[in-house]
Amino acid sequence: MRRIFRLKAEATSSSKSHEFVEKREALKSAGSLKSAGSLKSAGSLKSTSSLKSRMSRDSRRPTHRFVASAFRRKVIAATAAALTLASPFPAAAHDIPADVVVQAFVKPEGHHLRMIVRAPLAAMRDVEFPLRGPGYLDLPRADAALRDAALMWIANDLAVYEEDARLAAPAVASVRVSLPSDRSFESYGEAFAHVTGARLPDATSLYWNQGMLDVLFEYPIRSDRSRFSIEPSLARLGLRVVTVVRVVAPDGAVRAFELDGNPGLVRLDPRWHQAALRFVALGFRHILDGTDHLLFLFCLVIPFRRLRPLVLVVTAFTVAHSITLAASAYGFAPGGLWFPPLVETLIAASIVYMALENIVQISLRRRWMIAFAFGLVHGFGFSFALRQTLQFAGSHLLTSLLSFNVGVELGQLLVLAILIPALALFFRFIVAERIGTIILSALVAHTGWHWMTDRWERFRQFPLHWPAITPELLLTAVRWAILAVIVAGAAWIVFGLFGGLRNAINAETAETAETDSYPGGHAGPPLHL
15 and 82, same structural domain? Predict the structure, then answer.
C-alpha cells in the first residue's frame, strides 16, 4: 500500500511540474511578444528611459541582443575615431608644431625690396590644401591655397618699414612647394633662382605637412639706399619660432639676424644713435635683472656709508668689466662650451669671497683691487648677455659696447642710490652696524655658496684636455697677452688717477672703527652723500 501511495504522489508531482513548465513557457512566449511589441512602439514613439523601465520590470525578457548591438555600435565609433586621428588629412592640421624655423632673405633692388621666405607648411593651420591619395599634396591645384597661406600666415605678420614709414602690403611674385631636403637657401642667389624656377613635378608624392612653402614678396620702395626695419610677429606659427633673416645690402654685404618669437622692431642698418639707445636700455635692464651682479654690488657697499669712498671701488669694477666685455666682443674670449660655466662659477665665488671679507672685517684699503679683479670675471658674464644682441649693433660695434656699459653704470648708480641710504637707516635704527654687516653678509654668502656648488657641478661635466700646440693656439696666447697688457695699463691708470681717493677710504675705515664708541654701538655720524 505504501508503494502505491508513493507512486501516486510521484505522478501528482510530475503532473504539477508539467503544468508549471507549461505555464512558464506560456509566460515566456507572452513576455516575448510583449517585449517585441514594446520595442517596436518604443523605437517610434517612446524614449529610452521608458524602455529601460519596462526592461527592469520584466527581468525574464532576453536582453543579450540589445547589449551586443550596443557593443557593436561602440566598437564602430571607436574604430572610426582612431582612423580619423591616424589619417594625414586636414583633421590633423590643427596641431601646433613645437619648433619652427623660418628663413628669410631681404634685398633692396632699385625701387623694389625683395623678400624670400621659407616656412614649413605644417605651421600653417586652417588652410585647406588640395590633397590626393593618402594625404599627398595635389600640386597642380595647390597654387591658390599656397598664396592664401603666404598672405595669411606670413605677409600679414611681417611689417616692413622704410625710414620709419611702413610699406604697403607686398605682392606675391612667386610661390612654390619644396622638399624638406632642399638646400637652395644657402645664399640669396640660389634662393631666388629656386623660388622663381621650375616647380616640382605634378606626380611628386609629398605629404602636405612635410613640405616647405617658398614665397617671394615684393615691396615698392623709394630707394634701395634707404634704411629698412622689419617687425616679424611669427610666433603663432609654433610653440617656439626662430626667424633667421639675412640682409643683402646693395653692395653685396650680408648681415644675419636670429630672432626669437616676436622680437619687436628690428633695424636692419641702424644709425649710431639708434644702436646707442637700444644698448643703453639693454645694459640698464641687464644689471637690474642680474641677481648675481646685484649681490656682488651689495657686498661691495655694505661696509661703506658714503658715496665718495665708493667712487674708486665702483670705478675699478666698471673699468675691469668694460675691458673683458670689449675683449669678448672682439673675439678674445675662449669659445669652448666649458667657458660660460667656469665664468658663472667664478662669479658665485666672488660673491662668497666678498661676503666673507665683510664678516672677518679685512681692511678696506685694497678693496678696489679686489673689485678690479672680480670685475674682469663679471665682464665675461656681461658678454654672454650680449652674444645674441650684438647682431642689432649694425656697423656700430664699439658704440654699442660703450652704450651697454653706460646702461650698466646707470643701473648701478640707481642701485647704489637706493642701497646706501637704506643700509644707513638699517644700521642706525634697527641693528648695530657690525652685527648687521655680519648678518647680511652671512645671508649673501649662504646664497652664493649654493650657486657656486651648483655651477661647479655643471662645469665639471665638461672634460678638459691640454690643447695641442697649433698656430691657432699661439694666436690665442698672443691675444691673451695683449689683453693682459691692456688690463695692467688700465689698473695703472686707475691707481694713478684715483690714488688720492685712497685717503678717503682710509678715513672711512677709521670712522667705521669709531662706530662702537657711540652709545648702543650704533653709527653716530649723520649720513653724508
Answer: yes
Locate all alpha helices (DSSP H) within 114-195, ordered by sequence: 143-153, 188-195
**Which position has the grid cell 665665488?**
349
For 286-332, the pLDDT digits (tens) are 888 888 889 998 988 888 766 677 778 888 888 888 888 888 888 87
- Written as nine digits, the cell of 504 is 678717503
Q: Which DSSP helix (H) or strand (E) runs through 255? A: strand 254-260
Let me know whether 139 and 225 are in one domain.
yes
Q: Which contacts (CB < 8 Å, 24+ apart) does range 346-349 have?
A: 346/377, 347/292, 347/293, 347/296, 347/374, 347/377, 347/378, 347/381, 348/292, 348/448, 348/449, 348/451, 348/452, 348/455, 349/448, 349/452
Q: Are residues 264 and 285 in the same domain?
A: no
Q: Kindly state the cell numbers that stand for 93.
A: 592640421
261 and 279 share a domain?
A: no
Are residues 205 and 294 both part of a single domain? no
Read off the pLDDT of residues 218-237 as tens digits, 9 standing for 90 and up: 999 999 999 999 999 999 99
Are the CB atoms for 464 and 377 separated by under 8 Å? no
CA separation for the pair 230, 268 (Å, rounded) = 7
User: What three-state secondary structure class fits 514?
Assistant: helix
Domain end among 243, 269, 295: 269
Pairing verdict, β 254-260 and 158-162: unpaired
First to last CA, the chain: 135
Examine the domain organization and report whether 238 and 366 are in the same domain: no
d(CA 333, CA 380): 8
Instruction: Indicate if 258 and 241 belong to the same structural domain.
Output: yes
The 10 Å Cβ neighbour count of residue 74 is 9
Number of domains in the chain: 3
Among residues 409, 415, 416, which one has the least CA distance to residue 284? 409
- 37: domain range? 2-86
Same domain, 252 and 289: no
The enclosing H or E element of 475 equals helix 471-497
